[in-house]
Specification:
The chain is α+β, with helices and mostly antiparallel strands. The chain contains eleven helices and twelve strands. The relative contact order is 0.05.
Length: 442
């Protein structure tokens, strides 16, 4: 409470009692006894009242001053000061107690914010992606250590510069996320750029994150080559080994001076084995070529009902039960989608023929995006091991190429969809689920 107010309050009390006191003293010595007695009592009461007023003033003023100091400290961000002797039984003491509790709460919140900010700054400095934050005028307001390395300049020299000067202006707009090949003063690489928006001090800012994909892509490429070489070596060796053995046997046979009576049968049988293994190797390479040369889908309107029923009618080994579904159209490559569903139905029929079961084909429309879900259920033996389903050239069938499921998934993903194959829960068999959006993403 201001000191001028305290002085005004004291002067008001003294101004109220001093005139009466002076008049009482005069009458006390000049008037009669009765009058002097009345004034004596009056002066006593006034003195007591003045003393009580001064005491009450001190009792109220000091707690209010303390409360004012506390609130002033909170306004300045100092949450360490506390009011002493806060008595919850006293009204002003209760106010001090609540303000002390508020100070503890604010201090805890401030410590939490400081710790979270320190952790965020630590993470920002240590992560291996470049982070930049620009204000609404395109000036750089924040960057981390990886961003400074990418631009090959100290942080203090980069802050405040415009995005156009730093070569980052083109990433403030356009699709996000996206990938591009680009060169910065720090290095050249294949990058993924992500963009977001946030507010700081009420002002809009744009956050740009640049991730170097080169190392991850090279590792994935290296692993893919290893798997491919391993599978190719296995398949080629499986074909060349019997060809080499039979060729050697036939060479020894025809090199004899006297041919055995059945040499012609042995030769023809050996040549048939060579032909079979060569045909198997040809099918294997044709399957790989088909997988590697899958073209981009040519989008057109596809009637799902016509597509599903047409594929079901193409299967002649087993009558496929088609459950009616809603009338829905999607955008896709009709030829690729037909090939996809043919492979799914063929696999289901292969499994069902082993057990004498059936195959059911159905579709439904997604309420969320208007897409379609096609489901193929078979009554076969189910999957013994799902870990190798989409491994290239791995097949559990004697004449399988090992590219069927991989081709199915590749076509589905090219249309922005997904393909899953799982065991049934109610009985033996599999459930193949194909999910496709109404309009594939660009």
């Amino acid at each position: 409470m201001p000191r001028s107010y305290n002085r005004q309050l004291v002067f008001l009390i003294l101004g109220s009692i001093l005139p009466g006191t002076a008049l009482g003293l005069v009458l006390l010595w000049t008037g009669d006894f009765t009058l002097r007695l009345q004034w004596t009592i009056t002066l006593g009461v006034m003195g007591v009242a003045a003393s009580f007023g001064l005491a009450l003033h001190g009792k109220i003023t000091r707690p209010l001053q303390t409360l004012s100091n506390l609130l002033g400290g909170f306004r300045e961000g100092d949450f360490s000061i506390r009011a002493r002797g806060a008595d919850p039984l006293d009204p002003l003491g209760l106010v001090h107690h609540e303000v002390n509790t508020l100070g503890d709460t604010l201090r805890g919140h401030r410590l939490g914010v400081l710790e979270a900010t320190a952790l965020l700054n630590r993470v920002m400095r240590e992560i291996d992606v470049a982070v930049f934050a620009f204000d609404e005028f395109g000036r750089l307001q924040l960057l981390n250590r990886a961003g400074a390395r990418l631009l090959a300049a100290p942080e203090e020299e980069l802050l405040g510069r415009k995005a156009t000067d730093l070569g980052l202006h083109e990433y403030l707009s356009g699709p996000s996320p996206r990938t591009f090949d680009g060169s910065f003063p720090g290095r050249w690489a294949r990058w993924e750029v992500r963009r977001g928006a946030f507010r700081q001090a009420g002002q809009p800012h744009t956050l740009i994150v640049l991730s170097d994909l080169t190392r991850a892509l090279r590792e994935e490429e290296r692993q893919a080559w290893r798997r491919l070489v391993r599978v190719l070596s296995h398949e080629i060796n499986n074909s060349l080994a019997p060809i080499h053995s039979i060729a050697g046997t036939l060479a020894k046979l025809v090199d004899r001076e006297t041919l055995p009576p059945d040499w012609r049968d042995d030769t023809l049988q050996g040549l048939r084995v060579v032909e079979e293994r060569a045909e198997g190797l040809r099918r294997f390479m044709a399957g790989y070529a088909r997988l590697a040369r899958l073209p981009n889908p040519e989008m057109e309107t596809v009637d799902v009902s016509r597509w599903v029923n047409h594929v079901a009618q193409l299967e002649q080994r087993l009558a496929v039960e088609v459950q009616p579904g809603p009338k829905v159209e999607i955008q896709g490559d009709a030829h690729q989608l037909e090939q996809l569903l043919i492979n799914v139905v063929r696999n289901a029929v292969d499994a069902a023929l082993e057990t004498g079961g059936g195959v059911q084909l159905s579709w439904s429309s997604s309420k969320r995006d208007g897409g379609v879900q096609v489901k193929v259920i078979d009554e076969g033996n189910g999957l013994a091991d799902r870990s190798n389903l989409f491994v290239p050239f791995f097949s559990t069938k004697a004449q399988g190429s090992g590219v069927g499921l991989l081709l199915i998934r590749q076509i589905a993903e090219a249309h922005g969809g997904t393909f899953t194959l799982e065991n049934r829960r109610d009985r033996p068999g599999c459930v193949a689920l194909l999910s496709l959006p109404r309009v594939p993403p660009p």
